[in-house]
Amino acid sequence: MRKLTRKWRKPSEDELSLPTRDDGTLDDSRPMDIREQEELIRSFEKNQAQQSRLWRSVFAVLLLCFAGFLVYSIYQQVSSPWELRYHAYFMAEMESWMIISADWVAVVACSLAIIGLLHDTKYRRRWFWYSCFTGIFLAVFWLYYMLRMPRFRWDVIWLPLGPLGGAGISLYVDHLLMESSEEIRKLRGYMYAYKAS
């Protein structure tokens, strides 16, 4: 057991070498030439683009589901006011149109984050920031009315934090994906020229 632990803690010298060809039958001690480096970096770029589309789509679908739930909540408040428990808590504090308006603002905040996730432009971050500011406004609104209630209700904490959290997570996902793209751009800049002797 101790030998296994030592092996895990001490990396072998072979693991710290420069990248070479994938084919084990060829000479692994020679560096990759320009064409091989270019192919490797192109494969990294293609993989990163696919992963970026996948993760942006996943988080856009999650936000779309949350926005759909909010639209259902608006419909319920319009058709039969105060039926939903999380709206009924605010019956004494606010009017029905205020809840409907706040839910519509939450839908707009989610939509702005979805637009930021799905549009591939250099101004994508603006959409996230618009969504964050809308979410902050909404959080202040809901927290103000939640603090006015006789007893603070933790089961409706998603009302102020849902749209803001969605915008923040979308901004964070975009940051991570852009960071990974930047690392691949740096790798392209580090390509070395191999000269055959």
Describe what you observe in this structure.
The chain has six helices and no strands. With 197 residues, it is mainly alpha-helical. The chain is elongated and about 75 Å long. The two termini are 47 Å apart.
Span between N and C termini?
47 Å
Low-confidence spans:
none
Rg over CA atoms: 26 Å
- Look at the structure and give the mean pLDDT: 85
Strand portion, in percent? under 5%
The profile of the biggest β sheet is: none
Structural class: mainly alpha
In DSSP terms, counting alpha (H) and pi (I) runs of 4 or more, how many helices? 6
Shape: elongated
Oligomer: single chain
Number of strands: 0
Name the helicity range: over 70%
N-to-C series of helices and strands: HHHHHH
State the gist of this model.
70% of the residues lie in helices and 0% in strands.
Features:
single chain, 197 residues, mainly alpha, 6 helices
SSE order and pairing:
Elements lengths: L1 H8 L24 H46 L5 H4 L7 H23 L5 H25 L9 H32 L8
Helix pairs in contact: 2-4, 2-6, 4-5, 4-6, 5-6
